[in-house]
Amino acid sequence: MSLRYQTEDDEQESQNAAARPRVPIPLYTIILIASIFAVFAAQLAGGLEESALVAGFVKPAFLKNHEYWRILTGATTHGGVAHVLMNCYAFYSFGRIFEMLANRAHLAIVFLLSAIGGGILSLFFVPNGISVGASGGIVGLIGYLAVYAFRRSQFISPAFRKNLLINIGFILIFGLVLYQTIDNFGHIGGLITGAVYGLVQIPSDSQTDPREAGTAVQFAGLAAVGVYVAACCFSVLLILRII
Question: How far apart are alpha carbons 98 and 201 in whole angstroms?
């Protein structure tokens, strides 16, 4: 049996570890991503092309048949394995940061509103197309974080701000290059929605903690999660022909 004596360095390291702030679990991010994967599993079972027609944002059906739920179910479906993996990776990367910097209720609200905002702008400019994917909501998170990075610049490093701008530029350029397969207006609409929400919500006063949220905001965030999860469940039922 061996004995290990704690040195002063070990004691100092233990104190430093205890003093470090605990990184919160990105709970809402995980719930929303899990819901997306559940829908994609149903898509694999029911067929990707068929599921896009059944539950995607088919704009003629939205306009002519009054199937208004499609603006939400379209944000739950994806076009393929690469599409869903890239979206969920981006969602987790930015959602985790979002839930560290702001209250998670705002993440759910921004995601849902940006998905709808992206859908509306896409509907206006491309009324005859079909859109799938949660990209509008995810880009909305980036728009919010960009406003946060500049409005509360004293707490955010220049490297982080630069990284956000690079990401926004990459999304726009990537969309222009692949304009025939990517819904650019959905991305732009989501980006604008998230940025506007950030301008309204993020406090410029350095003494105000943006992670604090009142009861009404927390309830709204929980409701936003509920709406998106319900849309995912509805998509699964549609894709599997249960309803």
Answer: 14
CA torsion sign for 228, 229, 234, 238 is positive
State how far the alpha carbon of 101 is from the alpha carbons of 84, 106, 157, 194, 198, in Å: 25, 10, 13, 15, 12
pLDDT surpasses 90 at 1: no
Which of 37-41, 54-58, 206-210 shows the lowest per-residue confidence on average (mean pLDDT)?
206-210
The yes-or-no answer on residue 51 being catalytic is: no
Q: What is the pTM of this model?
A: 0.88
Q: Is 187 a catalytic residue?
A: yes
pLDDT at 9 over 50: no
Q: How far is CA 159 from CA 95, 156, 164, 191, 206, in A?
A: 18, 8, 9, 20, 20
Task: Phi first, then psi: give them for residue 130, nearest 5 degrees.
Answer: -125, 130
Residue 105 CB neighbour total at 10 angstroms: 22
One of 35, 131, 135, 235 is an active-site residue; which one?
135
**With pLDDT > 70 as the criterion, what percentage of the chain qualifies?**
86
Residues β-bridged to residue 122:
none
CB atoms closer than 10 angstroms to residue 150? 14
**DSSP character for 207?**
T
Selecting among 83, 122, 187, 235, the annotated active-site residue is: 187
